[in-house]
Amino acid sequence: MIERGRVRSVNGAIVTIQQETGVSCFGCMNAECKKGRGLITAENSAGLDLAPGQLVETSVSRPSLALQALTALCPPLAGYAGTFVLTGLVFPGLGEPARAALGVAALAAVGFICFRLCRRFQGRTPVTVVRVLGE
């Protein structure tokens, strides 16, 4: 995900950036960004010459985004599949619609639990400055 923002301060390799709000911010779950009203910290791993007021482009690595997607999607789907299979083994007389309904309930429950755990124990997603766009 690539976003733009203005540099507010530079402290070595750590840069504070005021992000430009856009359509992607509407559904974003980035609590750090929401608390700081769009202020985020990013790493200047490329060693760019940055100064306050510059417009920069930031990015999050694809492996980090893929890991976030996997941790968000896999547990609820596993909850659905596990419930569907286990209810068929434990209650063999239960029909497929009932098993599917219980699976959907498990999907919702596991999804909610994962959501709460991720909100409580947030890992830091490494945001890096990719390039300088201008003043």
Question: What does this molecule look like?
Answer:
The chain has 135 residues and is of the alpha+beta class. It is 44% helix and 26% strand. The protein is built from three helices and five strands; from the N terminus they run E-E-H-E-E-H-H-E. The protein has helices spanning 31-35, 62-90, 96-120; strands at residues 2-11, 14-19, 39-43, 55-60, 127-134. Strands 3-2-1-4-5 form a five-stranded antiparallel sheet. Strand 1 and strand 2 form a beta hairpin. Helix 2 (62-90) runs antiparallel to helix 3. It is rod-shaped and about 70 Å long. The model has no long low-confidence stretch (mean pLDDT 81).
Keywords summarizing the entry:
135 residues, alpha+beta, five-stranded antiparallel sheet
**Number of beta-strand segments:** 5
Percent range of helical residues: 40-55%
Largest β-sheet summary:
5 strands, antiparallel
One letter per element, helices H and strands E, the order comes to: EEHEEHHE
Strand content: 25-35%
Q: Structural class given helices, strands, pairing?
A: alpha+beta
Shape, principal axes of CA atoms: rod-shaped
Question: What is the topology, as strand order, of the major beta sheet?
Answer: 3-2-1-4-5
Q: How would you state the average pLDDT, rounded?
A: 81
Between the first and last Cα atoms, what is the distance in angstroms?
A: 22 Å
DSSP helical segment count:
3
Question: What is the radius of gyration computed over CA atoms, rounded to a whole number of angstroms?
Answer: 21 Å
What ranges have pLDDT less than 50 throughout 5 or more consecutive residues?
none
Looking at how many chains there are and whether they match, the oligomeric state comes to single chain
